[in-house]
Amino acid sequence: MSNRRAGRRSPWGFGWASKWGCPMHRIRAIPILTSAVVCALAATPALAGVYTVAPVTLVSGPSPFAGCTVGGPGTVYVNSEVEPWVAVNPVNPVNVIAVYLQDRWSNGGAHGLVTAVSHNGGGTWNLTFAHFSTCSGGTAANGGDFDRASDPWVTFSPNGSAYQISLSASADLLTSAILVSKSIDGGDTWSEPTTLIRETTAFHFNDKESITADPHDANYVYAVWDRSRKPGENASFNALHSYAFRGDIMFSRTADGGLTWSGSSSSRTVIWWTSSSASRARECSRRRISSPKP
């Protein structure tokens, strides 16, 4: 997770403190303010292959998690929305899904991830959410019992099924997990989350995940993320300056449309923690899509 307010992130990935200073990933231009909104450009359906851009449309509304008190310590910015990601259904181009953080915490993460769904090319939007955190309906029974969620990403399979992924974590950041949820109705409803990895440790943190559906085979979907490995024998912030700090690129996939996922495994490449580690992970996902399937 990244610290958008400071414009910097820690090597730990969740935004422990801005002073560690690693470049962030994805969208950076949206400030964390209580008045922040998420907007989308609504595109009209294609006519003879020509698209036009409609006026800006407001997507977000009042926070559905405003009454949630889970997730402290820290300052929570209720009604703030950051890190938007948008995908268009290849089967039905007027079906658009946007995902974003809702109610950002000052020290990383948010109350939950909100899903905005349009069935008319972005003209109007309805809000829903997967159970990626306690504030968004996560429980021990459904696997979403986490204080915070972050790093939203959504993708469509060629058959119109949608998948979204979350970095979910405890407020003390000792527990981190990568969760995936599937929708078969264009984003209106979402399955209970599937856990790709969940760890409780002071020495590892799962972060910077992305998910990509195979554009040619609806059975295959790929997920990648960084798993940091902090050196030393105690949870010391000073260890984050160590040259031995590493981030493994992790990979998991489904070959049956999300029914099962492969055990999270390293890509056999251990890299030094650098500002490009997240982009390398996403490139890994893209390359695997074009690789022959075993």
List the helices and strands and how they pair.
Elements: E1 39-43, E2 53-58, E3 76-88, E4 96-105, E5 110-118, E6 126-128, E7 148-156, E8 162-169, E9 175-183, E10 194-200, E11 204-213, E12 221-229, E13 246-254, E14 265-272, H1 277-290
How would you describe what is shown here?
This protein is mainly beta and 294 residues long. The protein has one helix and 14 strands, in the order E-E-E-E-E-E-E-E-E-E-E-E-E-E-H. It has one helix at 277-290; strands at 39-43, 53-58, 76-88, 96-105, 110-118, 126-128, 148-156, 162-169, 175-183, 194-200, 204-213, 221-229, 246-254, 265-272.
> What is the name of the CATH topology?
Neuraminidase
Helix content: under 10%
Order of helices and strands: EEEEEEEEEEEEEEH
Low-confidence stretches: 2-44, 264-294
Tally of helical runs:
1
Under the CATH scheme, which class? Answer: Mainly Beta
- Provide the spatial order of strands within the biggest beta sheet: 3-4-5-6
Specify the biggest β-sheet.
4 strands, antiparallel
Helix/strand structural class: mainly beta
What is the 3D form? globular
Question: How many domain units?
Answer: 1
Q: Radius of gyration, rounded? A: 18 Å
Question: CA-to-CA gap between the ends?
Answer: 33 Å
Report the CATH architecture. Answer: 6 Propeller
User: Could you tell me the number of beta strands?
Assistant: 14
Question: What's the pLDDT, averaged over the residues?
Answer: 78
